[in-house]
Amino acid sequence: xxxxxxxxxxxxxxxxxxxxxxxxxxxxxxxxxxxxxxxxxxxxxxxxxxxxxxxxxxxxxxxxxxxxxxxxxx
Length: 74
Known about the structure:
The chain is α+β, with helices and mostly antiparallel strands. The chain has one domain (10-67): Hypothetical protein (Metal Transport, Frataxin, Chain A, 2-Layer Sandwich), CATH 3.30.920. It has helices at 10-19, 55-65; strands spanning 23-28, 31-36, 41-46. The protein has a three-stranded antiparallel sheet with strand order 1-2-3. The longest helix has 11 residues, at 55-65. The two termini are 19 Å apart. The relative contact order is 0.26.
């Protein structure tokens, strides 16, 4: 059985993406677009201050970014 995903805000998720080499390329409205130069991956994060990202969306973003869910436990 997989461990339960941590509840986090967009700000916390962005910190994890930056730690894994993603850079914010642009912001449009309440969405920030991140890009990883070496892996050539684009990821969009909805930034709604103070709101928790749902587990389904969080898992989807992690899959797109190729970051294992276990990395959230570090």
